[in-house]
Amino acid sequence: MSDRLKVLPQYLLPKQALTNLAGRVAGARGGVWTTNLIKWFVTKYGVDMSEAVNPDIASYSSFNEFFTRPLRDGVRPLAKADFVCPVDGAISQVGAIEDHQIFQAKGHAFSTTELVGGDARLAAHFQHGSFANLYLSPKDYHRLHMPCDGRLTRMIYVPGALFSVNPTTARGIPGLFARNERVVCVFHSPQHGEFVLTLVGATIVGSMQTVWHGVVNPTRPGRVCEWTYEDQNIVLKQGEEFGRFLLGSTIVMLFKADTIAFNPAWGPERPIRLGESMGNRPA
After folding, report:
1. CA distance 7 to 28
2. Dihedral sign, CA of 218, 222, 223, 224?
3. pLDDT tens digits, one per residue of 200-236
4. Which of 156, 188, 208, 222 gives a 20 to 30 Å CA spacing to 196?
């Protein structure tokens, strides 16, 4: 069966209702019921609790608390590189932005303008630049960290659909990452210039949050919302947490031209870990 046929049911599913329900379940403090849900999840997906600050499943009061658990110090050391991987997960696609287009999967692409919510001026900064689409599966650590130092300048919430973002769906739904709900975070680095980290929502992703704002999409207003931070000094260092998903999804990164030469070992479907070398500035 083709990937396009496999994803057809997603067009019919009540994705918003399922996501709202999942959010309520994940946030519930259900005692033994919550503990049993976490146990089932850990077993089904093979979650390595030995890496967590708190490995005791029974001590988590809600599924969200478990899902966004912090890792022990030292389990994700930072590589000596200009850019480090910001997440645990797998590479969906990585490469050059060609004619403002980001490659999603065979036969599918989407534009940088679409991704950032229609801001053509912002998107133009990344003409002939580079991108990386990184997928976080259910078993992965779901906090998001900085690939390099950066000062926050803008954040844009873009409403959208809530399709799954797993590899099959990425191959089957055109423009997936520019159709789904997303949060676009714009940073400036003295060394690397402007770059964008985009959190892409998905079915049952209860919410997305950042360390400077908290939950960005609690009410899903149905319109583009923007916050500017030029008058603030929100600076995050390489490796610092900048956000998290409450249930899994994808992050899409944009870099300006001649900013990053990706790690030659990086390619589609390769597993990745927070802190490993993502790349360096071109020689």
Report:
1. 30
2. positive
3. 987 656 578 999 999 887 666 778 999 999 999 999 9
4. 222
pTM (2 d.p.)? 0.88
Across the beta sheet with 143-145, the strand order is 143-145, 241-246, 207-210, 214-215
Residue 197 and residue 185 in contact, taking contact as beta carbons nearer than 8 Å: yes
CB 240 within 8 Å of CB 107: no
Burial of 282 (C-beta count, 10 Å sphere; 0-12/13-18/19+):
exposed
**Strand-pair category, 207-210 with 193-200:** unpaired
Residue count of the chain, please give it. Answer: 283
User: CA dihedral in degrees (114, 13, 42, 104; nearest 10)?
Assistant: -30
Residue 147 corresponds to which tokens in the numbers above?
């690939």
Both tokens of residue 190?
Answer: 């003295």
User: Are 253 and 198 contacting, i.e. CB atoms less than 8 angstroms apart?
Assistant: yes
Q: What is the DSSP letter of 95?
A: E
The answer to whether 166 and 135 have CB atoms below 8 angstroms apart is: yes
Model confidence at 13, pLDDT cuts 50, 70, 90, reads low
Distances (CA, A) of 153 to 144, 188, 249: 18, 7, 24
Q: Fill in the amino acid letter for 68.
A: T
Helix then strand then coil, in percent of the chain rounded to 5, is 25, 30, 45
- Residues annotated as part of the active site: 88, 145, 249
Helices (H), 32-189: 32-45, 63-67, 112-115, 120-124, 167-172, 176-179
What's the CA gap between 37 and 26, in Å, rounded?
10
Distance, CA of 200 to CA of 109 (rounded, Å): 15
From 135, 115, 226, select the one nearest 179 (Cα to Cα). 115
- Band of pLDDT at residue 178, cut at 50, 70 and 90: confident
